[in-house]
From TrEMBL:
Spans through the membrane: none
Stored PANTHER family: ENOYL-COA HYDRATASE, MITOCHONDRIAL (PTHR11941:SF54), ENOYL-COA HYDRATASE-RELATED (PTHR11941)
InterPro entries: ClpP/crotonase-like_dom_sf, Enoyl-CoA_hydra/iso
UniProt protein name: Enoyl-CoA hydratase/carnithine racemase
Lineage: Bacteria, Pseudomonadati, Pseudomonadota, Gammaproteobacteria, Oceanospirillales
Length: 229
């Protein structure tokens, strides 16, 4: 892997660490490398733990790409949504251990995992697309509708409300909130618990539970790519 992310296999757990600048921007190259890391995890039959740098999971898509042209923005959104689809249907358990802020596509990474762990602190988590002038894409709406608590859906997607970690847990972005010093130890502990499951049953049950949602998400990705409203 390059400097954009690292891949480390520890006790049959694949730790993927995003490291792309101050906000861990999700760029086309990072997504390509993310997929390469997932290929390795799949080959290693490893539980996946995705994390970031101190204080930051990700601030979202690379704005240089998003503002370059409509075509480049649409291509990056499709690439990112396809990554979410892969994570949601991944054959091994996926954990996101967020060390801080998770905004826009960063928050969608949380919504694409089987287990989400965040940290206490002055961090913001949420979907700020509407606040920065972007109409939420079909794939984003599909993911949010499936993964967020229904009472928070309008607040998150339409009103672009941002949340501190404990309220983000109520909204459905996180499952567990721990002290910053405990994040990776807790993530590895939870990864070992998941690794102890019957992983074939885990995969088949995940796909069965999410079958309709994954089909809806695939259709939404194509709508976004076609520029459908």
């Amino acid at each position: 892997m390059s400097e954009l992310l690292s891949y480390e296999l520890k006790d049959n757990v694949a730790v993927i660490t995003l490291n792309n600048g101050k906000v861990n921007a999700i760029s086309p190259q990072l997504i390509d490398e993310f997929n390469t890391a997932l290929d390795a995890a799949e080959q290693n039959k490893a539980v996946v733990v995705i994390t970031g740098t101190p204080g930051m999971l990700s601030g979202g898509y690379d704005l240089k790409v998003m503002t370059q042209s409509m075509e480049s923005a649409m291509a990056l959104v499709k690439q990112g949504s396809t990554l979410s689809h892969r994570l949601l249907s991944f054959p091994m358990p996926v954990i996101v251990a967020s060390p801080g802020h998770a905004i826009a596509k960063g928050a969608f990474l949380l919504l694409s995992a089987d287990l989400r762990i965040g940290v206490e602190g002055p961090y913001k988590i949420g979907l700020n697309e509407v606040a920065i002038g972007m109409t939420m894409h079909h794939a984003g709406i599909a993911i949010a509708r499936a993964r967020l608590a229904p009472v928070f859906l309008n607040r998150c997607v339409i009103n672009a409300e941002m949340f501190a970690p404990q309220q983000a847990k109520e909204a459905g972005f996180l499952d567990i909130v721990v002290d910053e010093s405990e994040l990776m130890a807790r993530a590895m502990e939870e990864a070992q618990k998941l690794a102890s499951l019957n992983l074939k049953a885990h995969k088949n049950t995940k796909l069965k539970v999410r079958s309709a949602f994954l089909n809806e998400l695939a259709e939404a990705i194509e709508k976004d790519a076609a520029g459908s409203l």
